[in-house]
Structure formats: C-alpha cells, structure tokens
Amino acid sequence: MSRALRRPPAPGVEWEFDKVTFSREYSRNVVRKLLVERAEHGGWELDRVRIGPDGTRRVVLRRKIIRQTRPDFFYI
C-alpha cells in the first residue's frame, strides 16, 4: 500500500515508534519470527521496511499511545 492511499490517523491518536535494524546475515524467516515476537508481546505493528543496497533491513514499528483521562470529580 502506498503512502498516498493510507488513511490519516484519527484525531487524538498518538503513536510511539521504534526503529530496528537487522543485518543481512539474518534470513527472512528469522526476521519474521523476531518481528512476530515483538508484535505479540509488545503490541507493536509494522509501519515500514526498507532493505538497503547492502542487504540490511531497517524496520520501523509503531504502537498506539493510550492515555488515561483524569476524572473531573474529587473525593472529599
């Protein structure tokens, strides 16, 4: 999916990003397993993958920042 076709995030949604680099020695299956592990246990989702001319994979992961709202009332 190209960037032009992506839907913009809903108003008020904030994202946390994490950049991960894998060297060319790691096979595609190993990288997949490592990314699945991070997604299942950390709540990350894949944002983009870039493969450099030297074979390194630069991966950007993202997850939503969920902020709790404070209650408007006070206990007395």
Write up what this structure looks like:
- It holds the Pfam family DUF5703.
- This is DUF5703 family protein.
- InterPro entries: DUF5703.
- The chain has a 3-stranded antiparallel sheet with strand order 1-3-2, covered by helices on one side.
- The mean pLDDT is 86.
- Strand 2 and strand 3 form a beta hairpin.
- The chain has a domain at 19-65.
- The chain has 1 helix and 3 strands.
- 4% of the residues are buried.
- It has one helix at 28-42; strands spanning 14-22, 45-51, 57-65.
- It is an alpha+beta fold.
Summarize the structure.
The protein has 76 residues and is α+β, with helices and mostly antiparallel strands. The chain is built from one helix and three strands. A hairpin with a 5-residue loop joins strand 2 and strand 3.
Secondary-structure map:
Layout: E1 14-22, H1 28-42, E2 45-51, E3 57-65
Antiparallel strand pairs: 1-3, 2-3
Q: Rounded to an integer, what's the Rg over CA atoms? A: 17 Å
Biggest beta sheet attributes: 3 strands, antiparallel
Secondary-structure element series: EHEE
Question: What is the terminal separation in angstroms?
Answer: 54 Å
Residue fraction in strands = 25-35%
Structural class by SSE content:
alpha+beta
Mean pLDDT level: 86
Low-confidence stretches: none
Query: Count the strands?
Result: 3
Task: Specify the number of helices.
Answer: 1
Indicate the overall shape.
elongated
Strand sequence of the main sheet, in spatial order?
1-3-2
Percent in helix: 10-25%
